[in-house]
């Protein structure tokens, strides 16, 4: 379930290095939220945010790199 933006601390969003060069279909993650990885759609920056635990995020990223 997306998390309302008001519940997140101020964050620094960054796009995936694999994002589409024309800015379509981009995923952004936020740094600086201890133990959590907020994820959002860059086309809807004021929309909802999916929050994943860092513990769940690490194996997800490892599987993408593998």
Task: Provide a short characterization of the protein structure.
The chain has 66 residues and is an alpha+beta fold.
Content-based structural category: alpha+beta
Low-confidence stretches: none
Strand order of the largest sheet: 1-2-3-4
Helical proportion, percent range: 10-25%
Question: What is the number of beta strands?
Answer: 4
Shape: flat
**Largest beta sheet, briefly?**
4 strands, antiparallel
Strand content: 25-35%
User: End-to-end span in angstroms?
Assistant: 27 Å
Structure description:
The protein has 66 residues and is of the alpha+beta class. The protein is 18% helix and 29% strand. The chain contains one helix and four strands, in the order ββββα. It has a four-stranded antiparallel beta sheet with strand order 1-2-3-4. The termini are far apart. The model has no long low-confidence stretch (mean pLDDT 81).
Helix and strand topology:
Elements: E1 12-15, E2 27-31, E3 36-41, E4 50-53, H1 54-65
Antiparallel strand pairs: 1-2, 2-3, 3-4
Task: Provide keyphrases for this structure.
alpha+beta, 66 residues, four-stranded antiparallel beta sheet
């Amino acid at each position: 379930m997306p998390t309302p933006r008001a519940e997140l601390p101020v964050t620094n969003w960054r796009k995936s290095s694999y994002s589409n060069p024309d800015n379509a279909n981009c995923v952004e993650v936020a740094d600086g939220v201890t133990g959590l990885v907020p994820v959002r759609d860059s086309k809807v920056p004021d929309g909802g945010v999916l929050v994943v635990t860092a513990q769940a995020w690490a194996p997800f990223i490892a599987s993408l790199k593998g």
